[in-house]
Structures are given as C-alpha cells and as structure tokens.
C-alpha cells in the first residue's frame, strides 16, 4: 500500500500540515462509502464523536489501516484515536431560521500541545467527495512562538468560556496573517494531515460535500512506549489504537480492544464508552475495503 516518504514526513514536521493525494484511489469504493457515512454526517458540532461504534463504514476505514498507518508514521509513537467525526452537508444549513448557502467556520486550533496533556495531536481529513478549498491554514502556527503571538492579538476564546482549543477573531486574523494563508483543493480520496497546534478553519461549501476526520493523540505520561501502559489503556481506554506496538498486544492486533456486538445509533451527544466490534461483524463495507487494500 501507499506509504509516506521521508520527504513528506519532513514537510509535515516543518509546515504542520501535509496533503496526500490518492490515499483512497478506488472511486467505486468511495461511491459505496458515501451513503453509509451520510447516516451520521454533521456540519458543525461533533454530535457523533465516536461513529465507529455504530457506523460500519467508519470501522471499515479504521480496520483497513490506511489512515491509521499514516498517523503512526507521523506520530512516530503509539497513539490513541480520540474521535472520528463525519463532516458533511447537502450544500446548505439552517441558521437563525434562515437557509445559508456557504460560509466560513471560525479560525481555531484544535488542541495546542501546551494546553492539553499530550505531546502531539494530529488530525486527518479524508475527502469522500471532491472538496475544493476545504480547509485553510495559517503557515507557521505549528511553532509555539508564532501561534502565541496570534493568540495574543486575536483570541476570542475567553468570550466563549472555552478550554483547550482557541477561537480567533476572523478580522484580526485577516490583518495579522493574510500573507501566510495556505489552502488546497482536494479530490475524493485525497487527505490532509495537520497538527493540533495549527490555526485553521473549514469552509462551508454551496454544494454537497463529505469527509471523514480522525483525530489521534500521543499521551504525555507515562511514556507511551511502556508496554504496561499500553495494556492498561487497552483495558481502560476503549478508544485506543497502537499500531507501532501491535506485536506486543494480545493477538498481535493494534485494535485489540473489541466487543462482539454493534451499538445502536445514539440520539444525543453523550459519550458512549465502548469497544470496536470484531472484524467479522464489519459487514459489506469492510469486505470491500479488504479487497481494495489488497490490490493497492
């Protein structure tokens, strides 16, 4: 399968984001995934944070290892998957009783490393449909000095009572960082990986669009290479994945924490702590993924 080159990893560490073309090149597979993922799509708040618990297509993507192996190459360490929201819309949304056709989400950083108990947070945004101008980034905000300078000038988070992430004033960002704006057009199957430090925003588009986003983090303490720590998380933290330590875990499976049955679709944003089902329960999407991955 496709692997990240050393030059790509160096580019990610330098810039804080990396566009990878053709992560999922099979168009028929993408077509098959769309109706399955749209069952739990959302456009703003992450109501469905752990959709692999009840969406077979999300589980199939994770089981196939395409995204998780890339994340392992970028984190260079065992890590855990914290959430995997499905971002999608039909091209419009309701706001204050009016139908909006396009717009911008807020400038923000997901989880700046100095504000949370992790050494690294990395997200991937996999385009399931074509996604022109899907995300914008502010170059340089991978580093603390540049990011803190922007936070000092433009931070709006205190008005919102937020912790962890940081929401920035868009007019202020336009003045302070206009020359450092970066964005890319994505085709279906392309992916962009970015560090939790990066200041970025999503674009709401006036046509249907769909993407799967996966956020991974490397715990700060205890040291993630310690196998006892991995085993503890395997039993206690049900959203944990450890690709680089897979041979040490039960059954040699990086997704060793599993359950036997599929959960019902949730009706609220409640965090449902549960485990992945075994591979035999993943259904048609997983079988299709297995064939496609084998041919890459």
From TrEMBL:
One Pfam family named in its UniProt record: PhyH
Gene3D superfamilies: q2cbj1_9rhob like domain (2.60.120.620)
Signal peptide: none
Obligatory cofactor(s): Fe cation
Protein name: Phytanoyl-CoA dioxygenase
Organism lineage: Eukaryota, Sar, Alveolata, Dinophyceae, Gonyaulacales
């Amino acid at each position: 399968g496709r692997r990240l080159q050393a030059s790509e990893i160096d580019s990610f560490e330098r810039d804080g984001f990396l566009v990878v073309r053709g992560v999922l090149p099979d168009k028929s597979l993408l077509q098959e995934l769309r109706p399955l993922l749209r069952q739990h799509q959302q456009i703003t708040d992450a109501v469905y944070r752990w959709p692999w618990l009840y969406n077979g297509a999300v589980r199939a993507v994770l089981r196939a290892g395409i995204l998780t192996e890339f994340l392992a190459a970028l984190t260079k360490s065992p890590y855990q998957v914290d959430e995997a929201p499905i971002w999608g819309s039909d091209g419009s949304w309701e706001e204050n009783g009016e139908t909006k056709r396009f717009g911008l989400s807020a400038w923000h950083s997901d989880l700046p490393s100095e504000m949370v108990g992790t050494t690294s947070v990395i997200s991937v945004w996999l385009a399931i449909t074509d996604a022109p101008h899907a995300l914008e980034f502010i170059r340089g905000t991978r580093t603390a000095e540049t990011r803190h300078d922007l936070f000092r000038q433009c931070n709006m988070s205190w008005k919102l009572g937020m912790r962890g992430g940081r929401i920035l004033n868009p007019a202020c960002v336009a003045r302070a960082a206009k020359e450092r704006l970066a964005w890319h057009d994505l085709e279906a199957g392309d992916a962009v990986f970015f560090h939790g430090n990066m200041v970025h925003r999503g674009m709401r588009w006036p046509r249907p669009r769909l993407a799967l986003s996966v956020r991974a983090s490397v715990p700060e303490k205890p040291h993630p290479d310690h196998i006892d720590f991995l085993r503890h998380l395997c039993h206690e933290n049900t959203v944990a994945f450890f690709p680089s330590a897979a041979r040490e875990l039960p059954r040699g499976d990086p997704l060793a924490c599993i359950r036997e049955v599929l959960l019902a679709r949730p009706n609220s944003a409640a965090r449902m702590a549960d485990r992945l089902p075994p591979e035999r329960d993943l259904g048609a999407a997983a079988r299709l993924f297995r064939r496609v991955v084998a041919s890459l």
